[in-house]
Amino acid sequence: MMPARTPTPQLLDRLPPLRGRVSSRVSLAAISWFRVGGPAEVMVRPADVDDLAAFLRDRPRDVPLAVLGVGSNVLIRDGGIDGIVLRLGRGFAGVSVEGNRLRAGAAALDVNVSLAARDAGLAGLEFLRGIPGTIGGALKMNAGAYGGEIRDVLVEATALDAEGRRHVLSPEDMGFTYRHSAIPDDWILIEGVFQGHPGDPIEIGARMAAIAQAREDSQPIRTRTGGSTFKNPPGVRAWELVDAAGCRGMSRGGAQVSEQHCNFLINTGEATAADLESLGEEVRWRVLQTSGVELEWEIVRLGRPAPVAYRPHTDEKP
Known about the structure:
CATH class of the largest domain: Alpha Beta
CATH architecture of the largest domain: 2-Layer Sandwich
Helix content: 25-40%
Largest sheet: 5 strands, antiparallel
Order of helices and strands: HEEHEEEEEHEHEEHEEHEEHEHEEEHE
Strand order of the largest sheet: 6-7-13-11-12
Strand content: 15-25%
Number of helices: 9
Structural class: alpha+beta
């Protein structure tokens, strides 16, 4: 495992003033749903949007910056993340209902947004109950589940660019495609406004309960996992290709392809990020050999790896 670089006093001294918090060598394994990965060299938690905008405007441009939510759909590599890890907290988690629309900060949990909509009798956002993570991540990747996607309900999104300038984006500006948006990688989403329609809170709640039950029945949500590993290729489901390639239950180190849903990788207890990533690459190779389809990662991989020298192997699944 490659240790994360120790923050130098020069790096900490070069950061602009912040009303929020700055910490060094923060454990990211404690945040990641996989419970793996090295530390953040420096973590910055702005107090609010104005604090974030000032930080972006004045930060040193030669220091890399990564944005991390609640770690639900990311794999943080064993070397950790050098430079600055930006994490949005309470100042970005507000949720309010405005007529038939709902406004949510980027740090608001998707499930909390769906609950707020239910309580306000606002239908159309029930699908968020089935998506782990935050609104910021959902906007960035056009998250979807159980018949709904972010692009179906988005009215507008607000982002800060690399200089801290604010931009209000329409759904067309977001450039949504399947599990992807086209906003620049160095822009940070801070808020979304979503369209709903009047509904009965009891009926909305029943639909949400059905989504929650379906998710529990079909996915290994009580394990250390990061959600769907690969995007669905056009016209086929990723799990079907993984299953047909004989990968269900396959393992490497402490990582395993879930027996319950084989588009999920799980940490059985002692996995490293390298175990998980190399197992994912093994699955991609086997699917390519059996179906000719090259699966694309849906999980975002961040940080410095211990080098993964991929090679096919012939180990049988346990």
